[in-house]
Write a structure and sequence with these properties.
Bound molecules: flavin-adenine dinucleotide
Strand content: 25-35%
Strand order of the largest sheet: 4-3-7-1-2-6-5
Shape: globular
Distance between the termini: 23 Å
Helix content: 10-25%
Structural class: alpha/beta
Oligomer: single chain
Number of helices: 6
Radius of gyration: 19 Å
Amino acid sequence: MNNTPIKKIRSVFTVKNKSFLTPHFIRVVFDIREDQLPLLSEVTSGSNNKIFIPPKGVKLIYFPERGREINSELVAKVRTYTNRSIDLEKRELTIDFVVHGENGPASAWAINAQAGDCLGIGMKQSHKPILPNLESYLLVGDATAVPVISAILEQLAVGVTAKVFLEVTEKSDELMLCSAASVDIRWLYNPEPERGSLLSHCIKQFQMNNPAQNNFVFVAAEYSTVKDLKVFFRVQLGWDPDFISTTTYWKSGASEEATVEKQQGTL
Ligand SMILES: Cc1cc2nc3c(=O)[nH]c(=O)nc-3n(C[C@H](O)[C@H](O)[C@H](O)COP(=O)(O)OP(=O)(O)OC[C@H]3O[C@@H](n4cnc5c(N)ncnc54)[C@H](O)[C@@H]3O)c2cc1C
């Protein structure tokens, strides 16, 4: 067993460019400086991170630290995102943000971000694959999980199969996803994700293969969907929890402080 502690990285990154991939997805590409390359070479695309967002008008990143008093008007807000891709050759780190308005610091930051802006980003060094290596996958996510599911699909091998359910705001938010695996994607559209999701209902209608130990279920979405599907797979279907991963990515009506922080730990 490898008992080497996982190294955590915190660094300040500069925006290289920003673009709207679709009406509700903003892609922000950060420059990886020479001195950040060794740190990033140990991080997997698709892993999650913590972003540290400076308050409006504050140019420096004041990382919150236990035991260190920092003026609350300066300290960065922490949110969880996905390292959509890490390209060491181009020296680019990419994060895709769902645009849900200026009601949250992360979404607001992405909407207003410009080349040259800074963001603190924390990650874990690990080459562990995002999901275990198996023969087939059921991947379920709302818009916030499109980045991680895109990265998972890119990492699946030839001969593997994946059935994917993704819910986005509207048809024009569909993205082109690449994979060597045999992938069947069903897109669902939901203009008001804060008011509920179609995912649970849709998954329950779907005829699923018996989960022989070669099938893995991954669910990442809003709290109510995750809670519902966790019960569905584990209790109603009685599937082996070792082959099911369910993670709340956000909670309607609550900021991240109030929801996922406790699940992820601090990076
Ligand atoms: C492991 C992990 C990986 C994630 N990866 C990504 C990612 O790559 N891209 C991404 O966009 N998100 C991702 N998320 C989700 C993201 O962290 C949350 O959506 C987060 O709440 C956004 O922070 P905020 O500051 O914009 O809003 P907050 O301040 O947290 O919330 C403010 C208000 O906005 C609402 N809200 C938050 N998110 C949404 C949303 N998506 N749609 C509608 N209303 C919302 C809240 O319910 C609240 O009422 C990930 C979450 C986790 C746990």
